[in-house]
Hints:
This protein has helices at residues 2-22, 38-42, 45-58, 63-66, 87-102, 129-137, 181-186, and strands at residues 71-74, 77-78, 107-112, 116-119, 124-127, 142-150, 154-163, 169-178. It is of the alpha/beta class. It has two domains: 1-32; 44-186, ABC-type transport auxiliary lipoprotein component (Rossmann fold), CATH 3.40.50. Helix 3 crosses helix 5 (87-102).
Amino acid sequence: xxxxxxxxxxxxxxxxxxxxxxxxxxxxxxxxxxxxxxxxxxxxxxxxxxxxxxxxxxxxxxxxxxxxxxxxxxxxxxxxxxxxxxxxxxxxxxxxxxxxxxxxxxxxxxxxxxxxxxxxxxxxxxxxxxxxxxxxxxxxxxxxxxxxxxxxxxxxxxxxxxxxxxxxxxxxxxxxxxxxxxxxxxxxxxx
Length: 191
C-alpha cells in the first residue's frame, strides 16, 4: 500500500514538474510562435505600403513636363541625422526604386548616401552638391529623396521627388508605418 501511495506521489510530483516547465510566464499555457508562410510574405503590409506610397507620389505626375532623363533614388535617411540611415531606410529605398521602375520610370541603380540635408533652423530639404554632380553625370531629371522619423507607435515617412536642375520639389507624399516588431528591428532597435 505504501508503495502504491509513494508511486502515485512520485507520479503526481513528476506531472506537476512537467506542467510547471510548460507553463508560460504568469502561469498561462505556452504560446506557440506561428511562422509566416510564403503567401503571408507576398501579402506583406510593409511591402504594400511602399507600393502604395510610390503610387500616391506619382499619381497625376506629368512625366513629360519633368523631362526624359532617368530618376535616381537616394537612401531614405533619419530626419534627425540625415547623414545616417538604418536598414529601414535602405530597405524602403530599394522598394521605392523597384516600384518606380515597375511604373515605367528609367531608374538608375546607384546607391546614393548622405544625399539630403536639412538647412539648420529652416527644415528646408535640399540636394547636396554630391547628388547634383551624380545627377549631372547620369543626366538624371529627378531624384527621389526621403526621411523617416520614429515615434512611439508610428514611424513617419516623407517622400519627395525633386527636380535636379533647381532642387524644386515636384511631388511629395507622407505616410506612416506601425511601430511593430519588424519596423523596430529595421530601425536597429533591440529585440
